[in-house]
Design goal:
There is one protein chain. The protein is mostly helical. The chain is about 80% helix and about 0% strand. α3 crosses α5, α5 (about 90-125) runs antiparallel to α7 (about 140-160) and α5 (about 90-125) packs across α9 (about 175-200). It starts with a helix and ends with a helix.
């Protein structure tokens, strides 16, 4: 798929999914976005890996009181595409995802700030008792949210080959490669630790042991473990239903 087409598809997804999330539809997630980016770039498994890792790293982050947090969703998108274009290098993709997630927080601030323009226009329309103008301006208020994600993704995909060249150049140094490897192992561990802190292990410890055994001794992959977990959750929730 060409870079321009990647930019159009993933740019539209970034903008539309952002608006969908504001409407209450939780489709803008690291996992869904990562898999979609992987599908477009030609490696769904890489998208699943980067997306799920970014999901673990984002645990505990939320926009409480309108606070700005790293945009892990956009980070997962770029990380997946760059990992695929860099020859399937997971560590390069993950490091890129983290860096761009932090950088995209600035676009979040810009999007939130420019939304106030439409709010003031809406206030003025109400003061003039112009309801139609108020409704139009209110709807236009989604533009800053949409464009603050859509434009960076579109431009980034067009220039993605240049980014990959720089990443490959940096990755040619041994100390950078070592650092990427360490980051790739440490950050998911932190996410898992946070996830475990939310779980009621005193009650559900058998599931923890079962998952560990299936992964460590049976060699079961992440997707297979997720399916087993979903099946066990279904049995636990619906098993006693009549």
């Amino acid at each position: 798929m060409s870079n321009v087409l990647l930019g159009i598809i993933l740019g539209l997804w970034s903008g539309v999914s952002m608006v969908a999330n504001l409407s209450g539809l939780g489709i803008r997630t690291t996992l869904i976005t990562g898999v979609l980016a992987g599908l477009c770039a030609g490696d769904v498994n890489m998208g699943f890996q980067i997306g799920s890792t970014c999901l673990l790293m984002s645990i505990g982050f939320y926009t409480y009181g309108g606070a700005t947090i790293p945009d892990w969703i956009t980070g997962a998108l770029f990380g997946t595409v760059i990992a695929v274009k860099a020859g399937g290098d997971y560590n390069v993709g993950l490091t890129t995802a983290v860096s761009l997630a932090l950088l995209m927080s600035e676009m979040d601030i810009l999007g939130r700030a420019t939304t106030t323009i439409f709010q003031h226009l809406g206030d003025k329309a109400l003061a003039e008792n112009n309801i139609k103008k108020f409704e139009l301006v209110t709807l236009l208020g989604i533009l800053p949210w949409t464009l603050s994600r859509m434009i960076p993704v579109f431009l980034g995909m067009i220039m993605i080959d240049n980014v990959v060249t720089l990443v490959n150049f940096a990755n040619s140094f041994a100390w950078v490669s070592t650092g990427l490897s360490v980051v790739g192992k440490v950050l998911p561990a932190v996410g898992f630790a946070l996830l475990l802190s939310y779980m009621d292990l005193k009650k559900y410890w058998p599931f923890l042991i079962l998952g560990f055994v299936l992964f460590a001794y049976a060699g079961m992959g992440t997707i297979a473990l997720a399916l087993v977990g979903a099946a066990l959750a279904g049995i636990l929730v619906f098993g006693g239903a009549k």
